[in-house]
Amino acid sequence: MGLGKWIAGALGWVTLGPLGGLLGFLITARFEALSEAVEQYNRGQYGNQEQRNSFLMSLLVLSTAVIKADGKTTSKEMSVLQDFFARNFGPQAAEEAEEIIKELLDKDFNLYDVCMQVRSNMDYSQRLQLYHFLVGLGAADGLHKSETDLLETIASYLGLSKGDSDSIFAQFQPSNESNYKILEIDPSATDEQVKKAYRKMAVKYHPDKVATLGEDVQKAAEEKFKAVSQAYEAICRERGI
In a designed cystine with 14, which of 46, 54, 152, 193 is the match (CB 3.0 to 4.6 A)? Predict the structure, then answer.
């Protein structure tokens, strides 16, 4: 089965370095029209598609690490994986993602090296979106300590700030202070500081920041943006702003 629908042939930087070595067998075995796709890409016919595909393949590799965090893989975890990709990218993506990840589960890779390659080739907004997907995947069946520890390590390797990683975690772990954590402020913040924090986060998390990654990734990014808006609205209601 070729993977020409969800992840079309054109791949960019992901074919190099540790990710390239890890995914080489997938490219050889599954991308039926790879030579033609590369030729078209070299002629400039794919535009930003290679950025999108490299992003998605990086997501698949790091999702595999999250799934393996507790040292075992269960049918429930694979079901969660399918639901996650179906919700964000559609049923075709869910089917293909499961196929790829099942093969990646048997592959060993250096998490630091993979994250360094991602960090070198994605801008900060793209890495934030990648991380949001990963935390969402881990949280889909409840975040366990092994997953939380791994996700914190990934955040560090990807060069994300502690405030940004905590903000994303807070979106999936509701608490009395989660709305403030999402906006990266303390409950003691003034009303003006709350408004300023919201404006800053709205810009940082706007879906347009990842527009170059394709319409499906951009649409999925709306979840993160929506969480920021909801957190701000909840704080405003609480304070009567």
Answer: 54
